[in-house]
Amino acid sequence: MSSQLNVALINYGMGNLRSVSKAIENNGDKIFWVQSARGLKNKDILVLPGVGAFGQAVLNLKKLNLMEPIVEWIKEKKPFLGICLGYQLLFEASEENKGNARGLGIFKGTVKGFPKIKNLRIPHMGWNQLNLNKRAALYTALPKNPYFYFVHSYFPVPEDKTIISAECNYGINFAASIQKENLFACQFHPEKSSCNGLTLIKNIFNIYRKSK
Questions:
Q1: Which of 43, 115, 139, 159 gives 20 to 30 Å between its CA and that of 175?
Q2: Which is the catalytic residue, given 124, 152, 186, 191?
């Protein structure tokens, strides 16, 4: 694949942009750190990363007037990748802020916290295996139950279970990734997941590259 993608990486003060940038650049694509709707023009794929609090992320996106442009981008079925907090923001609200902060509302569902279970450390931090859905085509060229790196205390609970492409177990089963049309989002960090993460990013971007 020789066609280079122009990638809009949303820079809204919620961390981990450099590691995401390096992982994408490793794939041969060009990164643009974006802080306005104008920065989305002439871009091939939008990446929304993030670590931290759901409510603060919503405030930061609103200050940059990026909530509506991101929603419009997704509604137009343009390629989108959400990572960790960028995955959670696709849903209606989060328990983290007692439901006071409204997310992008692309999908129905709430972001919930892990239950208090004896000997279950929160946050969920470290490597864990995925249970892949049969329709999880983006995980090709990976092991049957690949390991990815997680750092989170909350996770989305999609009302529409058909969008779930992989699950993970940490005390309970939760949706580790979703996929619908040109949208892919994951709770784990592919940019911190060594070879598996780089392979997944390559798979995602090459699918978009073919349709360019």
A1: 43
A2: 191
Residues 6+ apart with CB under 8 A from 35: 10, 11, 12, 64, 66
Check 124, 168, 186, 189 and give the catalytic one: 189
Catalytic residue among 84, 96, 124, 168: 84
Q: Is 191 a catalytic residue?
A: yes
Q: Is 49 helix (H, G, I), strand (E, B) or coil?
A: coil
Catalytic residue check, 152:
no
Q: How many CB atoms lie within 10 A of CB 181?
A: 11
C-beta pairs of 198-202 under 8 Å, 24+ apart in sequence: 198/23, 198/26, 198/27, 199/141, 199/142, 200/138, 200/139, 200/142, 200/148, 201/23, 201/24, 201/26, 201/27, 202/27
CATH topology of domain 6-211: Rossmann fold (3.40.50)
Ramachandran class of 27: left when φ > 0, alpha when ψ lies in -120 to 50, beta otherwise: alpha
3-state helix, strand, coil split of the chain in percent (to 5) is: 30, 30, 40
- Is 124 among the residues known to form the active site? no
Query: Could you tell me the pLDDT band of residue 1, with boundaries at 50, 70 and 90?
Result: very low
User: Could you tell me the pTM of the whole model?
Assistant: 0.95
